[in-house]
Amino acid sequence: MTHPTPPDALRNFISDTRFPCVGAKSALGKRQLEIVTARSIASSWNDLEVHRRLMAFAGHDQAEPKLFRSFAVIYGAPRVMNEKTFEQHMWARIQSMTDKDVWLGQRQDKDISTDPDNPHFSLSFGGSAFFVVGLHPGASRKARRFRYPTLIFNLHGQFERLRETGRYEKLRGAILARDRSLQGSENPMLARHGETSEARQYSGRAVPAGWSAPYRRPEPTGEFA
Question: What is the model's pTM?
Answer without folding.
Answer: 0.94
